[in-house]
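REQUEST ID: PR-0412
SUBMITTED BY: lab tech R.K.
PRIORITY: routine
TASK: structure prediction, single protein chain
INPUT:
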Amino acid sequence: MSSSSSRPSSPTSASSEPTPELLDWRVPASQRRPIGPWVRRLGWAQDASGAAFSTFVAVHLAAPVVGALAGAEGADAAMLVGRAYYHAPYVESVLVFGSLGVHLISGLAKRALLLSSRRTHQTLSFKLPSPHTLSGYLLLPFALPHVLLHRLIPASGAPPIRALSPSELDYSTFVAHGLARWPVRNWLLYAGVVGLGAWHAAEGWRRVLVRRRDIAGKARDVRVWRVGAGVLSAVVLAGLARIVQTASASGGVPAFLAARFDAVFRTLSLFRV
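STATUS: complete
OUTPUT:
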């Protein structure tokens, strides 16, 4: 056997070869270029936008967490502080909707590139998404009604809604009324958006932190992150239950305001059945 055949291959030369999933299948093999740089750029955009959006989520969830201890009145006070942050000029459009849009688009684009790179001229090898990615897909049908009900539809100037102000959309009024009026549907929506959102965010942060060598070992423990997401979800849902309890004890909302709230919910077919 020759010495050249027994020499181990160089790690550098092996790692320089583009992996099959990072090659563009749409051109002949001799002309294919690695799509790895695009995947990395989209991954960076997805991570950065997810981190930005999670700052809003943390502030947003502070109110029901406070509500678990202080009831509806405490949740309303915490929400007023949070609104001063994310309802500031340009903050909501950039930090909330902007970062969410970048996160969704970059994630879908990266997924499309990876799927297309596995395709050959005649065959397509399909790989199921990771649990983290799947949780993001499952979150969408819960998050969309949440955004519509709590932000977009209440801003409608059409009667009987007549552009509900943020001060009329408190936990002690709007949230408590919805949970009391349509308990099953609203509890399922809140449980879905809180549970899947907390799990998706925790797994996303774990993946980002694992890439940092100084804290990679501590961040690898999947169980810690998942238990943390479960505890946070339980506390938030317990806070919502406490809010409904204390709000109903105070007598609920006036009839004219309840009619406007009902109109918001009935805009979605889910609440017209």
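NOTES: Confidence is low (pLDDT under 50) at residues 1-32.
REVIEWED BY: pending
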